Amino acid sequence: MFSLKKTYVLLLDELKHFKKNPMPIILAIICPIITWCILAFIFSKPIISNIPVTIVDNDNSSLSRTIIKNLKSIEALNVFCVTSDIHEAEKMLMNGETYVVVQIIKDAEKKLKTNQQADVVVFYNSAKMVYSKVSYKSIATTLLTISSSINIKRMMATGLDFDKAIAHVSPITTHVHVLENPYFNYGKYLLPGLFLSILQMSASYSALFIFRNRRKYDTEIYIPIYVHKLSYLISRLIPLFAANFITILFLYLGIFPICGVNISSGYFYLFQYSLFFCFVCMGMGAFCSIAFKNIGIGAMVLLVLNAPAFVFSGYTFPCWAMPPFAQMFASLIPTTHFLNGFYSIYLYGEPSFNGVIPLCFIGMVLWLGTVALFYRPGDWLRKLGKDYKDYLDKKIGKEDEIYVD
Asked: Which CATH number does the domain 51-169 belong to among 3.30.70.360, 3.30.470.20, 3.40.640.10, 3.40.1710.10?
């Protein structure tokens, strides 16, 4: 049976004991906010620029000087060293002093004058994936522009006007429109997924204490056996959900604007969706709290589920490209399904129900499993302490006494 009076008394008692053991609130609010602030500081400049580039000029000609001048004018690149020693440049690349080496081969200009191809070699470290992608795109675009300019001048020297020379050099004009992240702003795509993965971890770990005693070193399950179970459960859920609500509010109104995560439309819908996601994640912690007698084992199970979320959720590597077993494991992680709907709204500004159904299914399984174990009597459940029982007898009344096994 549900009693509003019992729920109110238990809720006040729960809030009072947070002063003695604030760990659930610390996990729900303090830890994620501190982590988000650190990440916001780290990714304060999400647009990639000033990538260190070394140029090896073995030609020392007007062509090589033109290439160097054009590369220096690109904001994404920082041409900090021009040398003629390829071995020195290779050492710098291996030591991490430079990310890209551009080598202009000897007699490049001479070959051009005799209608031969000039060679420019680009070395980069593919381990620095994002940097190499941005730098290669910038260098390739610059060299293509210079090459086209040379060909246009050749055509004009034969008597063609400028427009016809361009049409001859580039008979097909390509217009490329890059969706989602045209400037390789890793903050735009990476940060939301990273923040929400941390939210999954903080929400699930905060709920790990729902069915635990408030004593500092007592890790056994703590649950009433017969009377007012629903009131007990609600009184313990309300403060934790309120704490996670505050955390999500801070994320959307504070962290996202600071990091430049602009959600033009569907902001309120995403906020509601995040609250639902948080409730599902709390179900992970609640289930582990009651399913495992020792809280340490429950924490390890949560770690196994939460830690891979950074990789398997799909925001760093697409799920469809993973091996079958990895895809199956990813389907068990709430963040995977949540991000499917989140990115559809965040990037395209269109309502989407991607991931809602599987997220509902995961939440239903977790919470129904928790409730089933919660209403299952047995001597494996921890008995209430006499001091707590006397306190409730005084507050609620003898007729509503809590019975234990």
From this structure: 3.40.1710.10
